[in-house]
Protein: SUOX oxidase
Organism: Pelecanoides urinatrix
Amino acid sequence: LPVQSAITHPRPGTAVPAGELTVKGYAWSGGGREVVRVDVSLDGGRTWRVARLTGERPAPGRAWAWALWELEAPVT
């Protein structure tokens, strides 16, 4: 399966102030494959940023079903 992801912070519909915003979420894959990268768009797909994977990482050769990620991004 291709990598799928969900945003968990900020919650949908939350007003955020201009400045630096931390966006958090989780991603999952299928077939025992590790999530190695998550790209996030905050403008409907016009531009993309690479999120930082957080939390524990699986040992080499052992993939987990999901990974946590976060992204620090400027918001106007």
